[in-house]
Amino acid sequence: MKYSGIGGQAVLEGIMMKNKDSYAVAVRKADGEIAVMKDTYVSMTEKVKLFSLPFIRGVFNFADSMILGMKTLTWSAGFVEGDEEEEEPGKFEKFLIDRFGEKLEEVLMAGVMVVSVFLAIAVFMVLPLLIAGVFRNFIHSDTAMAVIEGLIRICIFIGYIKLISRMDDIKRTFMYHGSEHKCINCLEHGLTLSVENVRKSSKEHKRCGTSFLLIVKVISILFFMVIRVDNVWLRILSRIILIPVIAGVSYEVLRLAGTSNSKIMDIISRPGLWMQGLTTKEPDDSMIEVAIAAVEQVFDWKSYLEENFPEQYPKGYFKGQETDGQECRAGGKGRKESGGQESGR
Fold first, then answer.
1. Which end of the chain is more exposed for a tag (fewer CB within 10 A), N or C?
2. Please, which residues have CB within 8 angstroms of residue 83's CB and are 6 or more apart in sequence?
3. Concatenated DSSP letters for 85-140?
4. Residue 37 pairs with which residues in a beta bridge?
5. Interval 197-232: pLDDT, tens
């Protein structure tokens, strides 16, 4: 495997792919066309040098992922909502429009992220602690309690994924998630970017956010084995305060696993890859075409293959071949590009 530097995210009926400061979102419209939006996003770690330091950058990379994720999800949702009849805004909606005007979308995105973070902390950090507290009546080992709390946290996470995966929209999103991984695996294992090659590539990838979340849960067990407080309110406070620290350490583990081919890192990555069985599903060819469309907007995969796999693709190997998504347009489906405005300023 050769590290490519590209990453992505599944959105509603589509894929977002990011390479350095450029990102592209490709969405399959109801009429079968692929709509593509390309834009730029400058991460916090680039804007502030301090934020790029090891064990600090993980927190801000996670924040960047949330911000860009909400932005791209909103864009993709516009195509789904576009198929529905528009309704007259209610009183509360009119109030928000009058109050915030053009900034309403940004305000709503910020509100959704704040609520999401609050709920995530409550459900995945505080709730496991409270449930584990029942066992304190007959288990007096702090180490055992940390393990029990961690296992409860993992069970809640798995239960949550299992529950939402019953929704049809989520099932399709998990399929697009699989196509994102397959595209990246296809290139990083030295295969040309075609529907056939992507289809036979793995839908699990070591740099996946699902693996990151599992690593967070494991690292939290190790932290709370060492950090011990008797008061329940101090225990809750410690879970909240240490979230950035745990996230920072977990990001470094994920980063190392995603760029290393060592046997040790492969073993460390294995549980995360197993967990991805819950959040990635095998995509159909139309979804793979969407993923390829997004990749080709932000990544020169032919130059990448010539540089990283010269024994298979010597310099100039692809010269004269047609580019710009030839594989994606196979089958008669067109693409429509819509430009975006520069973000992250």
1. C
2. 30
3. PP----HHHHHHHHHHGGGHHHHHHHHHHHHHHHHHHIIIIIHHHHHHGGGGGT--
4. 25, 338
5. 999 999 999 999 999 999 999 999 999 999 888 888
Pick the closest to residue 8 from 164, 127, 182, 144 (CA basis). 182
Buried b / exposed e over 182-221, threshold 16 CB at 10 Å, is bbbbbbbebbbbebebbeebebbbbbbbbbbbbbbbbbbb
Q: How far apart are CA 124 and CA 333, in angstroms?
A: 42
Predicted confidence (pLDDT) per residue in 80-138, tens digit: 765 455 566 667 667 767 777 777 777 887 888 889 889 999 999 999 999 999 998 88
Kindly give, in sequence order, each residue whose CB lies less than 8 Å from that of residue 206, ignoring residues fewer than 6 positions away: 254, 257, 258, 265, 269, 272, 273
C-beta separation of 112 from 104 below 8 A: no
